[in-house]
Amino acid sequence: MLRIQKPVFCRSLEGSKLFAFKAQSPVPRRAFFASAFCLLWGCSHFQTFELPRDPAHTWVNSQEKNGLRVGAELIIDPLSIEHHFGPELKETEYYPVFVYLENRGASSFEIRRSKFNLLLEDGEKLEAAPPEAVLSRMRRSSAPAFFLAPLVVPAIIALRNIHEYNFEMARTLYQKAFPSSLRLEERDPPLSRAIFFRDPNGKVHKREDFESSVLQTVVEVEGSRPIQDGTGTEAPKEGQKAVVGKLVLFTVSLSGENAR
Amino acid sequence: MKQRRIDPSHALLLFNLFLMVLASGCRSPPRPESETPFESGNRALATGDHTTAAAQFTLAIENAKDYFFTRAYLRRGESYLMAASKEADSTLKGKNLGFALRDFDAVLSQNYLSSEDEAQALEKRGLILLEQGDPDKAEESFTRILGLKLSLGASEYRVSAYRELGKILLNRALAAHKENPSAEEEVALQENFRKAQERFSSGLQINKEDEGCNLGKGICLHFRGQNNEAITFLEKSTCLSGARNTPNPKGHFYLARAYELQMGLHMNALEHYHQAFKEDAAHDFTPLYAQLITELNRNVFFGNPEFRWFFSSMLSYQGSSQDYWKSVEDLSVQRWIGKALNDAGDSSRKATTERPLTEPVESGVFARALARARSRKVKEAVEDALRLNPLQGFTERLEEIFPVESGKLALQQYFYGKALTLLKAKRHQELQDFFESANFHAFETSAAGDEFYRRTVLLQGRNIVEMWQEELKRSPTLTTDMKVERDRRLGKARDIFQSYLHENPKDYETRIQLGKVQELMESFATAYLTYELLAKEREHYPAAFQSILKLHAERLLTGKDLEAAWKLLLEYDGDEITIKDYVRRTKMQLEADASLYCVSCGRKGTEGDTLCVECGHPIGLAATPVPPVRGPVGSVK
Question: Which of A145, B111, B315, B573 has the maximal Cβ count within 10 Å?
């Protein structure tokens, strides 16, 4: 279900003296506000910060195992959420976490989004959600453009702008979100991605609930892959050391925005 | 101005009032006779006289007759609990805990009880159950506190309940904790720590200044890999304990660990390791000492300024873990001894003492000797201790390896080990002094009948013998006075051996030693008897045959004993070459001698004679009754 939220700036505009009409009938005033809202709704641009590029080792709470270092940062401040993902996300029940990865070892790692959990101190587990699910909750409705339909041109502009806004939002979200699975090879550059967590029961958590919470994930360390030669037999190359793959658990403390 | 005059009656009244005020101010505090038993009990409890306190509260309970005096029951239970906490004797401690539990259970069985009283009784009951080693019932007791509606003033009971519940869960988590678990196991193990952490956090939500909750949460976070966060809570805990001047070795140790894992072994971590060691008065907090082993293996190498502290601290462990000492032994070999002793032949003490030990090897040998002594491997510990014999400070080191002060766990073994080392190191006078020390006399009275005690006393006998032998080397000719002295001293040794053999008749080595003492006392016939019994009892026992051979060869026996000794030697069919060789050579000599005697009259002929000049019978093959062999003694030896 789409939920249309009344933006904050609209509420502040309503109370402003600039728009204090002295018209006797409230109808023109309401019509004016509705039109202005629809236009602004359509004309605003989607702008966010770039993805943080800090390597994982810069985080004091990061953890290293088998050469892979994982750091995590919970974005809980509404302003930060707005700056990183747009104003719509803070109105949803998703909690964004930046995950920082750095492979300093000789192994390759396979990291799956579904293996990430946000574990609260009281034992509650928040699950990682795909960006599509988050996007569907963030998308702006094009309904205001229909209100401007009698004016024709503004309506078209507004509709186009809303589409553009949603497109930018989707692009940003997909660029920043952690893919369903990710592979880190030796000497790959450090990377960071956002994972959106949601309470499985849809419960909205307070800021205090996240105290002493951790990000937990199980990462697969790759083992030796069978080598196919012409005869169909599988044999390791000469001088190549066989490595047995394993699962490694990371439990990373979630730093606040000022933890670095 | 009109002057006001004071009325004399008023002045008298004022004076009396002044005297009354003065008198009331100077009154002594109420005498104990005027106190109720409950008040007396409280006073005694405050002064730490728990036995009197318990007696007074009992009186108060008895005086109350049919009325259930809840506060008196609670205070008496508390008195018993405090008495138990100070009691060293485990039986008395258990008894006091039982009395305390009975009182708190009596309180809890009442129907009309204020929630504060109930919380107090439940808290103390839980603590007693923990002391009694029943964490499940204790958990139930503490959980009941959380269900009570307590006033703000009594919230400390709730904090205490959370803290103790956290501790129970933490102990369970630590017991289940293992090295290198699989990812699935690790998730489960971390969940255990999280549950404990949750309890501590709940306690901290009520009181952020609670030392135990801060410590518990810090430890949980550390085990969950959240060292940066753990530091905050552990620092708080150590600060609180520091301010109260109470020891907190766990707090300092885990803080050091968190620092080390977060930032490596730097000053902060070192400082807290030192502090943890200082505050662990009993030296039995095993994780701390196990970590010292790890540090010595990985980070603190020989020559490092911190090495001496880590090394000596590691060896000062007083706990009961045998695995710990096994690790110390392994570390000594891996890190310091290496192949240094194996190259020279590990068991060959002579070879190693000839080549001086390098400083790291010396440290390694010392650590291994001490570890072996603590693991009750006395013989191996003695072997290592002997390697340190030629080095400076041997006596002090021996004291450390075998500490013979009272109160040690394996005191009997230490006495034996020390005596054996001194004997093998040929420090006879030192050993004699040791046997005459007050420590040994105290040990004698407490350990009589113990196997190690008997063996130690036996060493005293051996020491007397060896001391006398050395003296004999210096002056081989004995005057009469010296002989008297010899008999006095060796008599003591003989008595020791005989007394020991009375208890352990199968100790063949000691029987040989008894024979040697008898030889030294020139009681050769008795000595022979000792050897003969031994040779007959234990077939082919070479030591017994060797001793008989010596007596026979040196012609120290006479008459029947000499004959019997020869017969015994003839019967020998063991593998000892020297004995067989002696028998063969003696036989040959006898045959050669026999060829010179007449077969009929026994008259000795001369070489070349074939017939007796007296009776005309042939000369030769007449067996001489006793073989008077002389000469090949040295070669036999």
Answer: A145
The domains located in chain A, with CATH, are 24-49+141-175 (no CATH), 54-130+177-224+241-260 (2.60.40)
Contact list in A for residue B193 (CB cut-off 8 A) is none
- Band of the pLDDT at B636, cuts 50, 70, 90? very low
Pairwise CB contact (< 8 Å): A253 & B187:
no
Distance from C-alpha of B634 to C-alpha of B37, rounded to nearest angstrom: 90
Q: Is the pLDDT of residue B486 over 70?
A: yes
Separation of alpha carbons B331 and B311, rounded Å: 11
Residues in A closer than 8 angstroms to B195, CB to CB, are 123
Answer whether A58 touches B (CB < 8 Å). no
Q: How far apart are CA A167 and CA B367, in angstroms?
A: 72
Interchain CB contact of B577 with A (< 8 Å): no
User: How many Å from the N-terminal Cα to the C-terminal Cα in chain A?
Assistant: 38
B184 and A CB contact within 8 Å:
yes
Phi/psi at B525 (5° precision): -65, -40
What amino acid occupies position B125? R
ipTM of the complex: 0.75
Sort out which chain A residues have CB atoms less than 8 A from B182's CB and list them: 246-247
- Give the type of residue at B334: Q
Q: Which chain B residues contact residue A61 at CB under 8 A?
A: 226, 228-229
Size of interface A-B (CB pairs under 8 A): 49
Minimum distance, in Å, between the CA of residue A50 and any CA atom of chain B:
28
Compute the distance between CA of residue A1 and CA of residue B295 in angstroms, rounded to an integer.
Answer: 59
CB B365 within 8 A of CB B357: yes
DSSP of B563-601, one letter per residue?
Answer: HHHHHHHHH--SS-HHHHHHHHHHHHHHHHHHTTBBTTT
> What is the pLDDT at residue A25?
53
Indicate which of A124, A206, A249 best probes the interface with B, i.e. most B CBs within 10 Å of its own CB: A249
* Token pair listed for A71: 């750091």
List chain B domain ranges.
Answer: 282-401, 548-636
Closest to B549 (Cα-Cα) out of B534, B569, B533: B569
Q: What is the pLDDT along chain A (260 residues), one digit of tens a residue?
A: 334 444 444 444 444 444 444 445 555 666 666 666 655 655 567 788 888 888 888 888 889 998 999 999 999 999 999 999 998 898 899 999 999 999 998 889 999 999 999 999 999 999 999 999 999 988 887 776 676 666 667 677 778 788 888 899 999 999 999 999 999 998 899 999 999 999 999 888 998 899 889 999 999 998 766 666 555 555 555 555 666 778 999 999 986 554 44
Question: pTM of the prediction?
Answer: 0.77
CA distance B372 to chain A (A): 37
The answer to whether the CB of B210 falls within 8 A of the CB of B244 is: no
Secondary structure of residue A109 in the 3-state scheme: strand
Distance from CA of B214 to the nearest CA of A (A): 13
**How buried is A222 (Cβ within 10 angstroms: 0-12 exposed, 13-18 middle, 19+ buried)?**
middle
